[in-house]
Amino acid sequence: MADETTNGAAAEAPTATQFNLQKIYIKDASFEAPNAPQVFQEDGQPQLQLNLAQKVATLAEGVFEVVLTVSLTCTLNGKNAYLAEVHQAGIFGVNGFDQRNTEALLATYCPNVLFPYARQAVGDLVTNGGFPPYYIQPINFEQLYAEQLRRRQAGADVSAPAQGNA
């Protein structure tokens, strides 16, 4: 009888949430120095532009591939010195979370896990290309996600009255 009560209570308990990292890998990496070796003789202040992008793909139920793309472009005196780009990927298991929390995990926690690997890969490409090291500063993915939600909400607020008037 005691077993029946225990089993009944366990059956009614909500599904436990699970989050796990299954694999981290570089999906793509490239380095271009189109004006080498002449660019090594140039004097001047390099201009650096860092771009981030993220893509999430569903591989199976509760299994997602998150790809963080980090692109670093350096120009010197109007010429491209180099372009380093890394697509750092990971496979994550996410189960038992509601849609909102799953989206937040995939948009914030997963890129935070991938970012140090991407930063290292970009840094290695730059120094192996013969250029001075570049250290990408930490990125606040939570803030980026909050800004994305704010923009999404502002877009919904703007379009909601227009739909009501139509």
From TrEMBL:
Keywords: Chaperone, Cytoplasm, Protein transport, Translocation, Transport
Keyword Transport: yes
Entry coiled-coil feature ranges: none
Subcellular location: Cytoplasm
GO terms assigned for molecular function: unfolded protein binding
Gene Ontology CC annotations of this record: cytoplasm
GO biological process, one term: protein tetramerization
Main location: cytoplasm
Record Gene3D superfamilies: SecB-like (3.10.420.10)
Complex formation: Homotetramer, a dimer of dimers. One homotetramer interacts with 1 SecA dimer.
PANTHER family in the record: PROTEIN-EXPORT PROTEIN SECB, PTHR36918
Function field: One of the proteins required for the normal export of preproteins out of the cell cytoplasm. It is a molecular chaperone that binds to a subset of precursor proteins, maintaining them in a translocation-competent state. It also specifically binds to its receptor SecA.
Name the record gives this protein: Protein-export protein SecB
Gene name linked to the record: secB
